[in-house]
Amino acid sequence: MEEKKLFVGYADTVITPPLGIHIPGHGFVPRMSSGVIDDVHARAIAFSDGENKAVFFECDALFIGTLCAKRVRPKIAECLGIPVDHVMIACTHCHTSMTIGGSSYIDGETEPSVSFFKYLDNVFCDLARFAMEDLKPSTMMASRSTLQGVGFIRRFKMKDGTMKTNPRYQHPDILEPDGVMDESIQLIRFEREGGKEIVLINFGTHPDVVVGTKYSPDWPGYTVDVMKGALGGNSEVVMINGFCGDVNHCDRFKPKHNCTTLEFAHRMARKVAGEALKIYDDAVPLTPGKVAGYSMIASLEKNDYEEWEVPICEQIVASKAKTEKELPEELQAYKITIKKARRVLSNLKHEGDFLVPVFGLRVGGLAFIGIPGEPFSEPGINIKERSCMEMTVCSCCTNGSFGYFPTRRAFEGAGYEREYTPYGPNCTEKLADTAVEILNHLKEQE
User: Is the distance from CB of 77 to CB of 385 less than 8 angstroms?
Assistant: First the structure.
């Protein structure tokens, strides 16, 4: 039997946008960039089994626009001579960076921003080439652990039967978290002949720690810095954010504390990198093997509404109010949020189910599953438990952005994610089932 081979390459570059470009991530309110705390990066890892090749990107960005991903991925694939399904672009979901491709909901994107995002198309192609040119014979190892006290479910069931997102700290009416936090942390090491080791860390929670109008890679970028420093500069590090649609860094059971600072982001980075270092030397070999990519479409039902709500939603949207308090009193009485009103009218225009792609990439015994949006944390646990692969890495905000994917549990309560999402209560179940089907297909590609 022919010996299985693995070749891995790496490249990175700074992608900090020019000042004056919109920083998304705080609703629909324009937040124009005014400075740089630390640069944001794009990192590319190239894989080859000696015949098939693929490239995985992780970017310090909120997400990559769906139209941008549809445009850029084929360009990269053409440059490398590989299938489009062998190109995966994930983002850390950093809230002090950019949307790659621009923020479509902000009127009047400036010419500098348009030019910058066109420039980024070529950056991705160049980065992919550089990573491929860096391919070196490699061995692959992995380990996993549990990391507590860094990410927390941000939705809570209250004693009166309601649900609140981010209630005040130590609220006396908090009953329990309305969700399940994926506290797993995964580490993959690629030891390369004649090149630096490449280390991947996979953990998920919202990078919404650093606030303001200055660029920063938030805790995922600082985790990279801490890990590289601890390894003495002999390793390249990539932080892959997992599913984190319903989790953040704020522990509501503790007294109120300032958790939206640069120092808090560094504190989180030390904890994530610290746990990764604990399991670094415990990594065991993963099987080398075929490099392959595969994607499938998940058909998601619409988020339901009642017919009587339609004219009310039309009035709410027509009012152009920015908050519920600005609505006329007669409209406030219906207790329909502006987000829900927009979603209902948008869904009215959409025929049939929503078709959402799910992406998979296999490197021997290692698999990547990418979702184009913000799945809640729990389906990541589901996918990894059902996976037929030795190690499965789940990444959010990958190859596009289709919004929030709440769990069925979330639809039984309330919250802006449920109000905002166009998808029905079984959306994460269908995404997870599709991901498992992709994994099974990739496993068969021996």
Answer: no
